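Chain X:
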Amino acid sequence: MYIDTSFLQRCVKTLEMSLKLLNESDNESIEYDMYRSACVKEFEIILEQSGKLLKKALKPYFHSSKEADRLYFKDIFRHAANHSLISIEQAERWLKYRDNRNNTAHDYGEGFAEQTIVLLPQFIVDANSVIQAINSVCDD
């Protein structure tokens, strides 16, 4: 089975660069606002793409593809941990990332953005781990 992770990998690299530039910017500058917005958007894209691709990677663990297709986001990460694709601790963090996104979905102000920025260093590590997990399933 082949799952193309190239878009997800590019999004993670984009997030890494955006976060680097954000951290180098003056908090009061327009550049800071631009990079913060880019970070939040990449966070959202990576969150969705990770769930989508991990669901595909989980299909061999189910009796049918339809069973896997019915999984909701949080179930995907729970099953990934149950099948040792990611650790339980990573799965718990992914559930928190999703909660961050869901709890603040209608609040696109500075508060939401700053809450998300705090999560990003570990999120990048976890996103790279998911990419490795997906690729390892494909290599089997």
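Chain Y:
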Amino acid sequence: MKATAIAHPIQGLIKYHGLKDATLRIPFHDSISVCIDALHTTTTVESVSSLEKDSVTINDKKVEGTEFERVHTVLNKLREKTGYSGFFRVVSRNSVTSGKGLGFSASGFAALGVAICAALKFDIDYVSLSELIRLGAGSATRSLAGSFAIWYANKDGKSYAEPIVKPNAVDLGMVIVPVPSTIKTEEAHSEVLSSPMLKARLRHVAKLVRVMEEAIKTGDVATIGRLAEEDSLNLHASTMTGKAHLVLWEPETIRIIKEVQQMRREGIPVWFSMDTGPSVFINTYIKNMETIADRLRSLGLSNVIKSRVGGNPFLTDKHLF
């Protein structure tokens, strides 16, 4: 059987950083994200009993090594749960293929989980699916939830995500600038463990999660933007102070940050945010997106993306093969 799913990547608002259990991908603390409607991952899965092993292609490249093992872990877990003894052909494609820190691992594994369950006609409850795709990428739990979502590090012995509000409940607009990098997200999560700032972050972040969740429920865009910006600086400071002094930002990242600060001095309500990469999310009210996009284009940045809040994954009959 063949099935195709589409999922939206996420912007971390209160980000998770580092893993308490790297094998099960359980984070140190709860985190909150928002799905990006303008970006998506499409994944087609076919169960093929005649294959000799799983085949995984992402963005037209055959996947091997660590990246393949992450996919293979999820495939094996589903084989275990369903009793399916064959192999899978997986083809996945992101709507944007340049830029690091755009949350596509989240949408990739969310789409993978939904597509496989549909291909095998496997009826799985939401929490179990969230925990299963977490084995591939922790943030996939939040892509599966859609909209604004909170990922629990431990809720009644489980680690999964659930939506906070519906996508149209908050007047949040995002302007996104993809910036490429060769640094892997896994490196950043590993590096933070050696930072002397990690313990301070862990003491601080629980309060931020509570305040962010309340801001989302009340539609307080200014507080959402301000907290996401503060948490971005906190996260990157923790990464930079690890043993390898890992700096994820690129020159374009700094240019955008400074332009956002200048716009704010001019009275435009706008805040920057970065996940574990150099790409920049700019959070604002929906009505301001075009003004902000124009300012960024005036800096010579042509790859500017405007987006509203995205929903949860869905199935489509438009297969990739």
